[in-house]
Amino acid sequence: MRPETASSRSSSRTIGARTADVVRAYLLTREIFDFVSFWQRVEALDNEVPDAVQSDMLFESERLFTRATVWFLRYQNLQDDIAKTVEHFASGVQAIAADLHKFLSAEESVSLKLAMERLCQNRVPQDLARRIVDFDPLYSALDIVEIANKTKRTVEEVAGVHFVVGGRLQLSWLRLQVDALPADSHWQTLARTGLREDVSRLQTELTTLVLELSPDVKASDALINEWEAQNKRELERCRQLVADLHSAGKVDLSMLSVALRELRTLAY
Questions:
Q1: If both were cysteines, with which of 47, 58, 104, 223 could 108 make a disulfide (CB 3.0 to 4.6 Å apart)?
Q2: Are 174 and 199 in contact (CB under 8 A)?
């Protein structure tokens, strides 16, 4: 089964969407992220890489496919012309994908590089391996394109702030903790999905807040330094909270919920 079939059903069950809207969101996701070429590349590796590796590659693509489809199901302009919506997002997604590792923190880049090397050791072509490991951070491109449109900035300027803010607050680490939560029931799955989207929403809100502080300033470091100077006390408290989570060992749903509630005070 190709990931798009399972993803469409999963998205519909997750938020109770109408079938017609799921189909529209699915088509947008497929075209904007050019999933057809990805599936063709993976299928061309039949008998060249282990079956388990191919399955893992498709699984990783399904995660992005499902999340992006849900994103579009909540997109206020979902009913707009499909071709125009694809045009609106595709160029921005491609621009971010081309320079993604320039925006990521050193820790994230190293982690993705190691994951890419593991795929390459299983005879996956390097460019395809990089595309796979970039799926998770590339999801942010949808929010980045919308922020760029709202703030009248380039996607590169927005991406610079977006990923640095996430790195300073360890939001990628928080997402990993959310992903590790149990999802043995439908409601646990909904809770985990909602919490992950809460992290993404927080990062989007903070990015917009930072960018709107000084509309004429382009450099991401200058913008973030100004924001941090204005929120020094709140940032110290939030960073201590995240440090406490690190030292706690196993992190559960209630702990993550409390942490996100505190981090959200930065967006007020």
A1: 104
A2: yes
